């Protein structure tokens, strides 16, 4: 079917954080050389075919309504990638996509996808560089084609096992022995071992991409420790999300079927690799926090809104509080209030009201914070201050879509 | 029937190559005639190798060859059907903005897959679509028709594939199984294609034909001619008649 081919192609994109996680394969970052250069064009027929099949996929991404229209952020992302690679990298085509999940993906033809969910979680440029470096690793180490060839040879082995078992099963059945099922089961077991080794292969690639990314970071003067930090944040966020839902945190990567290493192991490997590089003289010039905050500021409200709409209050609160380690801002406080308001547990009204009030006390409070603050005050019976806050909202955005409703409230 | 004989009979049937097309059309459909303007929307054609494990591995050289052949067949065969035909290979040639063209292509892909599932796959018929063929691309298509001046849009999708030597060996092992009464034949190369005609005045998919074949080779001029003819010739014939040759 055509659909399954396309799905395969999507699956073929290397994926940084498919929310799963590396066998403790310590790859020495200094041993990894890029396998492709700036002018690389595939020559093998299988790889050329994959590139050709990517054309329509890339075209649909270029025109997708999910594409984030953000030229400044786009240029910044390219600049970070090129600083990592150490040269202009026109062969890498970067697309920022509006998707609230923490993820990024690298396709074999040089198309890189970065999700807004990743940007929402990143605290500084070096953390952003950690994920971009990992993705670049998949490209420069040719992981997709390597993985495809491995799957191809392994699935051929599986098909032979299945076909041969059928012959044996048929022969057994024909001889009057009713044990055909057993043969099929045995074939399935053999196939299963082959399937598992395919996933193992992919985990080794993830480990390699991690090591490659960290090496690029060290060379470019980013703190190599940022890669482990971002994993720690992710694990803590998932724990917070699970606790909120009264669930035990389970590492989805920690299974034999996972294509990615278990997150905790991965974090440890990244930290070990970083320590190794620092011992060998890697020195960070800066973590690029101010640069990151400046470039992401215009999108912050949108990023937070996307996250909050996922209705995962545990994760959302963790995210807001984690970002607030660099100082509370008006938008952060407002969104903290929104998380409480949407969760609606006992006492959340008061927590939301306090967060809205805190937001309006900050110089960069968004207009919505004044509106929310106003309605919260009205609920407690404080009409004068409530009206004053709503007036402030209307003064900031006179043409707001809900201006009529707010004026109606004021006229009551 | 002896349990050993039946599968063998089945496999012999499978090995005898066949082509089948099945068409559907909306109530009162009349093929375009007289002076009409038809656009062929960026035909989607790919040719792959079937690896021993059964993956389809697209081959660039085969695909390019097949594209050239199918487009040449379309041009020459459409010329005999009247009207004017424009084949748009790129978005720019389709006569509208990029986003509209891509959206139209993608919408058609989804609708086309629904048609294939609910009209051509056994057991997947929708009760509400029984005896009806009323799929539409809606306002997007009529808007595009207005912008571009075309009366009809023809969407064409074709996939062809050929077994690698490893896959062929695997099929041979499978045939051995049939001899002892237990058949597992890995699928070899197969040709699948559909053509879909959209009336840009109404946005409706007015005619749809689905072809599946284990014969033919669209990498050759002759194979492409045959496929295009089998795909487009049934237009206007009795839709209830199932052609098989």
Task: Summarize the entry for a quick read.
The complex is a heterodimer of chains A (412) and B (245). With 412 residues, chain A is mainly alpha-helical.
Question: In words, what does this structure look like?
Answer:
The complex is a heterodimer of chains A (412) and B (245). Chain A is built from 16 helices and 4 strands. Chain A is mainly α and 412 residues long. A 4-stranded mixed beta sheet of chain A has the order 1-3-4-2, with helices on both faces. Chain A is elongated. Chain B has one domain. Chain B is 38% helix and 25% strand. The chains are: A mainly alpha (412), B alpha+beta (245). At the A-B interface, α1, α2 and α6 of A face β2, β3, α2, α3 and α5 of B.
Query: Which spans of chain B of ≥5 residues are poorly predicted at pLDDT below 50?
Result: 1-15
- Point out poorly predicted stretches of chain A: 1-25, 166-199
Please list the strands of the largest sheet of chain A in the order they lie side by side.
1-3-4-2
Please give the share of residues in helix of chain A. 55-70%
Number of domains of chain A: 2
Form type of chain A: elongated
Structural class of chain A, by secondary structure, is mainly alpha
Helix content percent band of chain B: 25-40%
Identify the biggest protein-protein contact and residues per side. Answer: A-B, 37 and 39 residues
Radius of gyration of chain B: 20 Å
Topology, element by element:
The complex is a heterodimer of chains A (412) and B (245).
Chain A: H1 2-11, E1 14-15, H2 45-62, H3 71-85, E2 93-97, E3 104-106, E4 111-115, H4 116-121, H5 125-140, H6 143-174, H7 180-220, H8 226-244, H9 263-279, H10 289-308, H11 313-323, H12 330-343, H13 348-360, H14 367-379, H15 383-396, H16 403-411
Parallel strand pairs in A: 2-4
Antiparallel strand pairs in A: 1-3, 3-4
Helix pairs in contact in A: 3-5, 5-7, 5-8, 6-7, 7-9, 8-9, 8-11, 10-12, 11-12, 12-13, 13-14, 14-15, 15-16
Chain B: H1 5-15, E1 19-25, E2 37-50, E3 56-58, H2 60-79, E4 84-88, H3 98-120, H4 138-148, E5 152-163, H5 165-179, E6 191-199, E7 205-213, H6 221-232, E8 243-244
Parallel strand pairs in B: 2-4, 2-5
Antiparallel strand pairs in B: 1-7, 1-8, 2-3, 5-6, 6-7
Helix pairs in contact in B: 2-6
């Amino acid at each position: 079917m055509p659909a399954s081919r396309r799905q395969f192609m999507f699956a073929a994109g290397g994926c940084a954080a498919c929310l799963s996680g590396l066998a403790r394969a310590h790859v020495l970052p200094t041993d990894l050389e890029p396998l492709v250069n700036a002018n690389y064009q595939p020559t093998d027929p299988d790889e050329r075919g994959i590139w050709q099949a990517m054309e329509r996929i890339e075209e649909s991404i270029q025109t997708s309504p999910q594409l984030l229209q953000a030229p400044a952020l786009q240029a910044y992302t390219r600049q970070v990638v090129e600083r990592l690679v150490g040269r202009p990298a026109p062969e890498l085509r970067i697309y920022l996509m509006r998707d609230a999940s923490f993820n990024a993906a690298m396709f074999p033809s040089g198309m890189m996808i970065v999700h807004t969910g990743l940007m929402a979680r990143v605290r500084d440029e070096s953390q952003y560089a950690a994920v971009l470096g990992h993705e670049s690793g998949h490209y420069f180490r040719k992981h997709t084609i390597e993985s495809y060839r491995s799957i191809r040879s392994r699935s051929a082995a599986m098909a032979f096992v299945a076909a041969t078992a059928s012959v044996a099963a048929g022969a057994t059945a024909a001889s009057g022995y009713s044990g055909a099922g057993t043969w099929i089961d045995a074939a399935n077991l053999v196939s299963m071992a082959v399937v598992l080794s395919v996933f193992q292969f992919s985990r080794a690639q993830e480990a390699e991409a991690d090591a490659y990314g960290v090496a690029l970071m060290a060379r470019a003067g980013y703190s190599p420790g940022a890669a482990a930090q971002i994993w720690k944040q992710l694990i803590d966020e998932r724990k917070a999300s699970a606790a909120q839902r009264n669930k035990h945190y389970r590492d989805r990567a920690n299974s034999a079927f996972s294509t990615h290493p278990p997150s905790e192991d991965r974090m440890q490997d990244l930290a070990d690799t970083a320590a190794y590089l620092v011992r060998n003289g890697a020195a960070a010039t800066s973590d690029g926090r101010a640069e990151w905050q400046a470039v992401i500021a215009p999108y912050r409200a949108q990023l937070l809104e996307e996250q909050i709409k996922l209705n995962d209050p545990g994760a959302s609160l963790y995210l807001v509080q984690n970002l607030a380690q660099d100082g509370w801002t008006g938008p952060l406080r407002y969104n903290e209030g929104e998380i409480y308001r949407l969760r609606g547990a006992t006492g959340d009204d008061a927590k939301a009201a306090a967060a809205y009030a805190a937001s309006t006390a900050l110089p960069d409070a968004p207009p919505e914070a004044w509106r929310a603050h106003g309605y919260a005050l009205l609920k407690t019976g404080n009409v004068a201050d409530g009206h004053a806050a709503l007036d402030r909202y209307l003064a900031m955005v006179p043409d707001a879509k809900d201006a009529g409703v707010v004026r109606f409230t004021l006229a009551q | 029937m002896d349990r050993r004989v039946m599968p063998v009979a089945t496999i012999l049937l499978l090995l005898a190559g066949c082509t089948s097309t099945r068409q559907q059309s909306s109530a009162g459909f009349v093929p375009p005639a007289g002076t009409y303007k038809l656009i062929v929307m960026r035909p989607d054609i790919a040719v792959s190798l079937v690896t021993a494990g059964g993956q389809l591995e697209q081959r660039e050289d085969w695909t390019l060859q097949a594209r050239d052949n199918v487009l040449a067949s379309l041009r020459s065969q459409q010329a005999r059907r009247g009207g004017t035909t424009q084949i748009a290979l790129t978005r720019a040639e389709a006569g509208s903005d990029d986003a509209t063209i891509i959206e139209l292509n993608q919408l058609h892909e989804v609708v086309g897959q629904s048609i294939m599932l609910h009209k051509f796959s056994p057991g997947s018929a929708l009760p509400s679509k029984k005896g009806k063929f009323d799929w539409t691309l809606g306002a997007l298509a009529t808007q595009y028709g207005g912008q571009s001046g075309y009366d009809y849009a023809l969407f064409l999708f074709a996939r062809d594939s050929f077994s690698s030597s490893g896959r062929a060996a695997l099929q041979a092992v499978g045939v051995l199984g049939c001899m002892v009464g237990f058949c597992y034949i890995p699928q070899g190369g197969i040709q699948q294609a559909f053509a879909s005609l959209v009336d840009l005045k109404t946005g409706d998919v007015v005619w749809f034909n689905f072809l599946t074949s284990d014969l033919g080779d669209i990498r050759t001029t002759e194979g492409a001619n045959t496929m295009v003819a089998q795909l487009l010739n049934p237009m206007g014939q009795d839709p209830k008649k199932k052609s098989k040759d």
